[in-house]
Specification:
With 86 residues, this protein is α+β, with helices and mostly antiparallel strands. The chain contains two helices and seven strands, in the order E-E-H-E-E-E-E-E-H.
């Protein structure tokens, strides 16, 4: 079983210029890091499909998902999220 953690934006509006995930992938126990570049450009939403699964070029609200980590345990997943450089 793998545990997941989500990196969320602390900003209400910002451009995403670069996501550095190499240090995260180097952490022992991390199995996968996903960003918008790894996913198809599909929009989602309950009423109107207008939100990406993960933010790609910019974040639109505090808490918007930017990256996802899968690791062997919860502690590793949480540590891995902290290593992602935005």
């Amino acid at each position: 079983m793998l545990h997941g953690a989500i990196l969320r934006s602390p900003h209400p509006h910002a451009r995403l210029l670069n996501l550095e995930t190499a240090p995260t992938l180097a952490l022992p126990g991390v199995r996968k890091v996903l960003t918008a570049a790894d996913l198809p450009r599909k929009l989602m939403g309950e009423q109107v499909q207008d939100l990406p699964v993960l933010a790609a070029d910019r974040v639109r609200y505090v808490g918007e998902k930017v990256a996802v980590v899968a690791a062997v345990n919860e502690a590793t997943a949480r540590r891995a999220i902290q290593l992602i450089k935005v």
